[in-house]
Specification:
It is globular, with a radius of gyration of 17 Å. The chain contains six helices and nine strands, in the order βββαββαββββαααα. Strands 1-2-3-5-4 form a five-stranded antiparallel beta sheet, covered by helices on one side. The protein has a two-stranded antiparallel ribbon with strand order 6-9. A two-stranded antiparallel ribbon has the order 7-8. By secondary structure, it is α+β, with helices and mostly antiparallel strands. The protein folds into two domains: 10-67, Phosphorylase Kinase, domain 1, CATH 3.30.200; 78-213, Transferase(Phosphotransferase), domain 1 (Orthogonal Bundle), CATH 1.10.510. The longest helix is centred in the middle third of the chain and has 20 residues, at 78-97. InterPro entries: Kinase-like_dom_sf. This is Protein kinase domain-containing protein. It comes from viral metagenome.
């Protein structure tokens, strides 16, 4: 059966949908069929790792069924944060390289799958990047992923991966040591100097840089 009668482990509601996280899968109910089709089409169009896997869908019920995910609300160590930053940076690399933006990156939209990899889900606010995105001015396109600049320490550059990571770190509200804080700030400054824009960087180089500072 498409839906099995069992109690969800976690339920989360927003204006357009409700997510039920079961032990074997995730079910998302939509109020609007158009919003559902947007999420379904955009999620399926993204090539590469880091994006939640679709198992099934039913337009008549306005439901999408995703792979099993665990929330990241209870992190056990700083290593978990490092893994999140690595996995989500790759996810965003693949999303942007496929010509899309996620539109709502947050700790609530990150899950741990059965392969112990962190992935992004909830693509109802996603969309295609404009064809001339690289030609736009700093002010016009620095908010592509809808980040508030005041959440980012000294971040006056346009959108790049470290902006995403800073937003995630702020939402986690973890107690970083002074050394850890300086590492993260150094990471932010180094990427600003290198002017990393969207997916115009080498993923392996990015991972090596992140590993060297966390």
């Amino acid at each position: 059966m498409f839906i099995q009668k069992r109690s969800p482990t976690i339920k989360r509601s927003s204006g357009n949908s409700t997510v039920y996280m079961h032990n074997e899968y995730v079910i998302k109910y939509f109020k609007d069929l158009k919003v559902m089709k947007t999420e379904l089409n955009n999620t399926a169009s993204i090539v590469g790792k880091g994006v939640v896997r679709i198992l099934d869908c039913d337009e008549s019920l306005k439901i999408i069924k995703y792979e099993r995910l665990k929330t990241i609300s209870n992190l056990e160590s700083y290593l978990d944060i490092k893994n999140i930053l690595l996995d989500i940076s790759i996810a965003l690399y693949n999303i942007h390289k496929s010509g899309y933006y996620h539109g709502d990156v947050s700790v609530h939209n990150i899950g741990l799958n059965s392969k112990d990899k962190y992935v992004l889900y909830d693509f109802e606010n996603s969309g295609k990047l404009p064809d001339n995105i690289m030609e736009k001015t700093e002010k016009q396109y620095k908010d592509v992923e809808m980040f508030l600049e005041n959440l980012i320490i000294n971040c006056k550059s346009y959108f790049n991966t470290q902006t995403v990571l800073y937003k995630i770190l702020n939402e986690m509200k973890k107690s970083f040591t002074k050394t850890e804080y300086m590492y993260i700030k150094s990471f932010n400054n180094s990427y600003k100097k290198r002017e990393i824009r969207f997916y115009n960087y080498n993923t392996e180089d990015f991972i090596q840089t992140l590993n060297s500072i966390l």
